[in-house]
Design goal:
With about 110 residues, the protein is mainly alpha-helical. It is built from four helices and no strands. α1 runs antiparallel to α2, α1 packs antiparallel against α4 and α3 packs antiparallel against α4. The chain is elongated and about 45 Å long.
C-alpha cells in the first residue's frame, strides 16, 4: 500500500468513526427531530465510506464510481452538519470535508 492509499484509507476511516459518533450524539440531542436529516446523512456517509474502503482493499473496478458518490455524500453531510452548533457536528463536518478532498484523488 502506498502513501496515497494510506492517506485515503485514513481519511475514510476517520470519516466513518466521526459520522458514527455524530449519529449517536444526535440521537441524544434534546430536539432529536430537528437532527433527522443530520442523522440520515451521517449514516449514508458512514456506509458509503465503508463500502469504498472495501472496494479499495479488493482493488475493485468500481473505485472511481464509489469515490464520486463518496465525495457527493461527504459534501452533503458536511453541509448539513455545518448548520448545527454541536461540537460533534462541527467535528463531523471537518472529517467529511477532508474525506471528500482526499477521495477526489481516486476519481479517474
Amino acid at each position: 500500500m502506498n502513501t496515497g492509499q494510506q492517506e485515503i484509507l485514513g481519511a475514510l476511516h476517520n470519516c466513518i468513526v466521526t459520522c458514527n459518533e455524530c449519529f449517536d450524539a444526535c440521537l441524544s440531542e434534546h430536539h432529536v427531530s430537528s437532527m433527522a436529516e443530520c442523522i440520515r446523512l451521517d449514516r449514508d456517509c458512514s456506509e458509503i465510506c465503508s463500502l469504498l474502503v472495501q472496494a479499495i482493499s479488493r482493488n475493485s473496478s468500481n473505485i472511481d464510481v464509489l469515490a464520486r458518490s463518496c465525495v457527493e455524500i461527504c459534501e452533503r453531510c458536511a453541509d448539513e452538519c455545518s448548520k448545527h452548533d454541536h461540537d460533534h457536528c462541527k467535528k463531523c463536518a471537518e472529517a467529511c470535508n477532508e474525506c471528500a478532498k482526499v477521495c477526489r484523488k481516486l476519481i479517474a
